[in-house]
Amino acid sequence: MNNTPEFHRIALIAKPDDTSEDLVNTLRQAITFLGERGLEVFPDRHTARALGLSRHFATEEMGHRCDLAIIVGGDGTFLSSARRLGDSQIPLLGVNLGRLGFLVDISPDAMRDTLGNVLDGRYEEEERFLLSCQVGEQPPELALNDVVLHKWNTARMIEFETWVDDSFIDTQRSDGIIVSTPTGSTAYALSGGGPLLSPALDAIALVPICPHTLSNRPIVVHGRNVVRLRVCGKTLPDHVRVTCDGQVTLEVGPGEDVVLRRHSPPLRLIHPAGHDHFQILRTKLHWGGKHS
Question: Is 109 a catalytic residue?
Answer without folding.
Answer: no
